[in-house]
Amino acid sequence: METLLEQQRRYHEERERLMDSMVKETLLKKPSSSSSRDQINSDHRMKTLLDRYMDDTVALLDLYEDKDGMRKEEVAALSGPNEFVEFYNRLKLIKDFHKTHPNEISVPMSMEFDELAKSRENPGSDDAVMGDFSDEEGYGRYLDLHECYDRYVNLKAMPKVDYLAYLSTFDQLFDVPKERKNYDYRRYLEMLLDYLQGYSARVKPLLDLADEMDNVRLEFLVKWEAGQFPGWPKETSGALAHTGAHLDLSAFSSAEELASLGLDRLKSALLALGLKCGGTLEERAHRLFNTKGKRLDELGPSLFAKSKPGKMGKSTRDAEKQRDVAQLEAQLYRLAEILGVSLTSLIALVLNFTCSAAL
Q1: Would you call 279 exposed, middle or buried from its count of C-beta atoms within 10 A (0-12, 13-18, 19+)?
Q2: Contact 331, 211 (CB under 8 A)
Q3: Taking a C-beta distance cutoff of 8 angstroms, is the pair 121, 29 a contact?
Q4: Residue of 123, 144, 313, 336 with fewest CB within 10 Å of its CB?
Q5: DSSP annotation string for 271-294
């Protein structure tokens, strides 16, 4: 039964209380003995307050824009010539509501914020559990990569390593040969990324993960186009490099030099590209030399043999798949950098446990 003006007043009050709580949370002096648990709980409280503040702001903006004109009508009714009639009509509505709901309890907003203050001032209480962590994760102290490790050791052609070795090298994807980065490898990356992103959201709730990933994609595209992304060197032999043919055109400065290779070698290189391979020695050499420094999609359609267009499409799709896998790797590198402390702590824990078991 709230009026629009009362809703606006309530949203403004709530925003002020939320702002006050966020300031107090920020200025709260944490003891030197405070654990990562206290910091994580503090960040989760701040995230909750910030989300509510943004929700209230959006609701207020919607009310002030008054797209349906209801707020304007309400203000006009209160300020018009019949303002007393409007007042008593609203008073009647209030009385009728309480007659219908005689036991209705109104909880003041201050009580909710008093509870928030208690949880802030007593961080060690049992109720102050803000993050959902497994026992292995130690409330944000360690990563739990056992499931990801099981998926990794079951990948074909991957070295079988123990858990400790995996923890030390799981983010060194640039050492994995490109021919092993197949569909199963991509599924493994997606599983690993899904866990790391979820863990990051729980241990660093104030981190704008979406913005981080957007920055990663932009940086990745620049490095990918320049051939500088780790583990994926850029081929330098033009269109031939996109199809895996073993003829480096960078060593030739003219079509005449290419002609010295002979008819059969030129035919083999042209077939690998899906280009027409007929004609004289000079025609083949000129046709092949024109591909130097160009991608397949930059070549004229008249150069291709009629029976080979599907091969070009497959090559393009393969290149896109490789780029997508490399982009997943770029995201993993950033998450591993963000979660470096948790990873280091986990390695130390496993190492200590291994040494203790050996003794």
Answers
A1: middle
A2: no
A3: no
A4: 313
A5: HHHTB---S-HHHHHHHHHTTTT-
Q: What digits encode the pLDDT tens for the residues 29-42?
A: 766 555 678 888 88
Show the tokens assigned to 226. Answer: 């320049």
Cβ distance 194 to 331 under 8 Å? no
Q: Which residues pair with 275 in a beta bridge?
A: 304
Classify residue 314 by burial, with Cβ atoms within 10 Å: 0-12, 13-18, 19+.
exposed
Please determine, for residue 23, whether its predicted confidence score (pLDDT) is greater than 90. yes
Torsion of CA 178, 186, 350, 345, to 10 degrees: 100
Rounded to whole angstroms, the Cα distance separating 134 from 138 reads 7
Output the pTM of the full model: 0.68
SS3 call for 33: coil
Between the alpha carbon of residue 345 and those of residues 143, 149, 349, the distances in Å are 9, 17, 6
Of the candidates 39, 25, 26, which has an alpha carbon nearest to the alpha carbon of residue 140?
A: 39
Cα gap 93→99, rounded to integer Å: 10
Beta bridge partners of 304: 275
Q: If 0-12 CB within 10 Å is exposed, 13-18 middle and 19+ buried, where does residue 224 land?
A: middle
Q: Pick left, alpha or beta for residue 291 (phi over 0 → left; psi -120 to 50 → alpha; otherwise beta).
A: alpha
Locate 2 and state its tokens. Answer: 């709230």
Q: CB within 8 A of 302, min separation 6: which ones? A: none
Q: Map tokens 């073993």 to a residue.
A: 246
pLDDT digits (tens, 9 = 90+) for 178-206: 888 889 999 999 999 999 999 999 999 99
- As given in the structure block, the two tokens for residue 245 are 């043919």
Euclidean distance between CA atoms 199 and 109, whole angstroms: 33
Question: Within its chain, how far is the Cα of 18 from the centroid?
Answer: 28
Q: How many CA atoms lie within 13 A of 300 on its CB side?
A: 6
Q: Are 28 and 42 in contact (CB under 8 A)?
A: yes
**Structure-token pair, residue 271:** 């077939």
Helices of type H across the chain: 4-27, 36-65, 70-79, 83-100, 109-121, 146-153, 163-169, 183-203, 209-226, 255-259, 263-273, 281-289, 309-338, 340-358
DSSP state of 235: P
